[in-house]
Amino acid sequence: MSWRLLGREPEVELLTGILDDTAAGAGGWHVLTGPPGIGKSRLLQAVFELAAQRDLAVATREAFRLDQAAPLVTLAGALRDCTTETSAFAWLTEHEPERSDPLGTLQRLRTSLEQATRERPLLIVIDDAQWTDELSALAIRELIPALASAPVRWLFAHRPPSTEDRDSPGHQLMRWLLRDGTPPIRLNPLADPDIAELSADVVGAAVDNTVVALAASCLGNPLRTEQLLRALVATRQLVVARGVGSVVGDDLPSSFVDSVRELLDSLSEPAAWLLRSASVFGRPFGVDEVARLSGHPLTRLYPLVGEAMTDFLVEDTLGGLAFAHDLVRQAVYSMLPRPMREQLHREVAAITSDAGRPALETAEHQLKSGPSGAGAAVRMVRSMAREIARVAPGAAADIMLRALPAVDAGDPDRPVLIADTVGLLASAARLEEARRLGGEALGAGLDPDTEAVLLLGLAEACKHGGLNTMTVEYTDTALRNPRIPAGVQARLHAVRTHALCYLGDLAGADDSGVRAEALGRPAGEYGAVVFGLAGRSLVAYTEGRLDDSLAYARSATELADQEGGAAAHQHPRIWLGGALTALDRFDEAEQVIRTGRRESDRSGSAWADPLWHYFQTALLYARGRLEEAAVEAQSGLAVAEQHEANALAMPLLGMLLRIAVRRGELSRAQDHLDQVRRLAGDGVTAVPEDVLWAEAVLLVATGAPKAAFDLLRDLYAGLADRPALFAADPAAAAELVRLARDTGHLGEASIVVAAARRLAERNPGSHSAAGAAEHAAGVHHGDLARVERAVAEFRLANRPLALAAALEDAASLGGDGYQEALSIVTGCGAERVRARIEAVLRARGAVAPEPSAPPAPCLPQLSPAERRVAIEVGRGGTNSEVAEILFISKHTVDAHLRNIFAKLGVRRRAELAALVARECGPTT
Asked: What does the record list as GO biological process (predicted)?
């Protein structure tokens, strides 16, 4: 496209301001949208020029439809072509690591981006972002919030979705970016005066009303206008006389394709054939590739390429060739007769395969080469199903879905193909499609082994999505056949263990855990053994057998360390950290979680991130560090939402709800409860300790104790068998007693006392359990001595929130605990409790003593955790480096920085560094 940028002054002004902001050190993202040919790419060219004037590094890529077949190619390709040479991306230029190790490449990209922005601000531009590949889309969803504090500006240009491609990874990414109502930058059709100027530019002379009127038929679309006028000039239907262009003749093009056809017909036949052949690639192509496809020797091809570049081709950033616009390519492609098109796709499939290009790209061409090609595509995808499922399950599933119609309904292989497709759909979290297609496969009849694998895939996907009832249905259906391989049975039982635990069938869950180990060890299916042991640890924790919970988690961890592979990828230290926290062994738990997180990061196990955040949140809550716990839980929730891990979102939301109530943020707590209800409405289940208890805490805080009791009626009844709530939150025992007594249910209060006593008896080494038992009994009977014994136990357990609760109850019974309780809850940030104690003291005529003021810290607006992060960032550390130094996750650093920026009113890391230097003194 050679036309000038016309009629885009408002957009240029807006983008200029954005680039100025970026040059000053601010980051962010923007979406540019408009129909094909409206001028998005031309506007981006202007942006590149403006960025160069501001000394911004620019990384850009025009995505192509076949990007979806190459994991991480969109993002890695953009960074590889960064305009400013930087060592941060040197590893990307040496070879194409995204092909050989896409997940490993993804892990390194964040660090490289952080390093690059130390040198200068970075602008990342993705044109035709609707074609972004699946893994790049996932990476961008993680990187945008992760790099929000860095001078990284993202600019995405895309066309509105059609019914056929609205669920592509790129369009899903665009919807995610715009989810909070942020308006995109919309490019509207050009006004008539701008079209008139454009017409004169294309013709090379002034034009009269005949030209302007015909150009107006293109409805302000500059690309369509240009193609129409070039076709008219080429066919001599637009002539210039006395310096003015006019339209002559009546046989004028009636559509965009007709315009392109007429322009194509103006070329020599060999050049036109070159373009028709090249349109099949669907991506930039090399001269050698098109020479092989068109049958011309290279020496003869170069003049043809020169002829085609006048109106059709441009040089790609990597030195290859590409159509000037994909609409033009599509128009040329549409002119190919079907037999010729299929033959060309067959040849291109061979070319891409020989060149070692991504398997899904080859399969895409095979699929378009006729019925025999569809079979070849299916075989290729099936042969690499496990690897593809890790990096591009959605793209692979789409190919299989399109190939299935070519397989006859009576073909004996069809059920197996459907089973493979179901597995890919499940891996892509497309559960409704997977279930619908899975029903067809099961109805058509499968051999037992294939049916079991299909049901296992559906069960694992449903468990990931929090659909535990459905998970059990699928595993039970598969396990009815005792002849399926032992290893598959072990994996089914392992998944079933966790699902049944969430559904409350603890005996059944433990039995499945036993079977997972008994079947898995002889079969060498150690991943199932580890996951089954982790499930048994969860069951034991729920039943209050805390030492057993620890033992199972230790066994799982030892086996994972010994066997590695699939066993290690289950990351059993997640449950080991949780068991240690329940036993008040906080330092050990912190070390285990820290070690496990590092292993998880190295292996690229993104699925585990929300779980690490959850157990770290539980540890911080137990230690009374409420603000840090809230940041940790919020970070985990963001990751869970990115990965659609609804099962893990529920407990994180429950923690956030409870923390918000403790901090007196009842409106925020209600927002979290609304999220819980939306997920529950979609069929996502959670254990009562995670969600019902949190909702009850909010109800009590808002003056609705009767509603809280009614909500927890079944929980009271089941406490004898599952006292897990007391292990997670020892102060909850006394709170349940108080709730029952206040609503006139003394029998339920006695149930709580008995359950807490039994928990303490089963765990004689647990100070928390002993404290919970004494606290509950003391509140129920009004026994000051027992509450004071609870104070002593909670003090030994180092649980400040539980200690403060017991001190407050002791004081209400005549003891002396209000002042210490007030000091504790103030330090923890439990504002609601602080206000309550201060109100009691005022009512008694007592005045809470002003605590001796410690030396004012620098940046007093920040919490201690935020201050530590701010100081490290002030020293020049990237988020990843700060995470390593402070032994916290990168997601937590990201969240802390968002809070820091908001509290200090800064938008750039440079501003924060200057503020730290001024307020805190030298940091190096």
From this structure: regulation of DNA-templated transcription
pLDDT digits (tens, 9 = 90+) for 694-750: 999 999 999 999 999 999 999 999 999 999 999 999 999 999 999 999 999 999 999
* 664, amino acid identity: G
Nearest residue to 58 (alpha-carbon basis) of 13, 116, 123: 123
Per-position DSSP letters for 507-545, written without gaps between them: HHHHHHHHHHHHHHHHHT-HHHHHHHHHHHHHHHHHHT-
Sequence-ordered list of residues with C-beta below 8 angstroms from that of 131, at least 6 positions apart, any chain: 63, 64, 65, 66, 67, 68, 74, 168, 170
DSSP3 helix / strand / coil % (the chain, rounded to 5)? 70, 5, 25
Euclidean distance between CA atoms 506 and 502, whole angstroms: 9
Total-model pTM: 0.79
Give the model confidence (pLDDT) of 884-919 as tens digits: 898 888 888 988 998 899 899 998 898 999 999 998
Structure tokens at 170: 């790129």
Mapping DSSP to helix (H, G, I), strand (E, B) and coil, where does residue 616 land? helix
Structure tokens at 464: 């990931």
> The tokens of 460 are what?
């694992």
- Rounded-to-integer distance, Cα 245 and Cα 289, Å: 40
Q: Cβ of 255: how many Cβ atoms within 10 Å?
A: 11
Enumerate residues 6+ apart whose C-beta is below 8 A from 859: 866, 867, 870, 904, 915, 916, 919, 920
Count Cβ neighbours within 10 Å for each residue of 460-478 and write b for 16 or more, e otherwise.
Answer: bbbbbbbbbebbbbbbebb
The residue type of 7 is G
Give the tokens for residue 247: 């339209």
DSSP letter (8 states) at residue 123: E
Indicate the helix (H) or strand (E) that contains 819: helix 818-828
Burial class (CB in 10 A: 0-12, 13-18, 19+), 52: middle
Q: Running DSSP on this structure, what letter comes out for residue 572? A: T
